[in-house]
Amino acid sequence: MRSRRAVLLAGGAALALTAAGCGGDDFANAPRPPATVELTGVIKDSGVTVSPTREGAGPIRLTIANQTDRAHTVTLEGDDVIERVGPVQPQDTATIRKTLDSGSYEVRAGSSRAVDIEDQIPPAMLKIGPERESSDETLLLP
Question: What CATH number matches the domain at 37-131, 2.30.22.10, 2.60.40.420, 3.40.630.30, 3.90.226.10?
Answer without folding.
Answer: 2.60.40.420
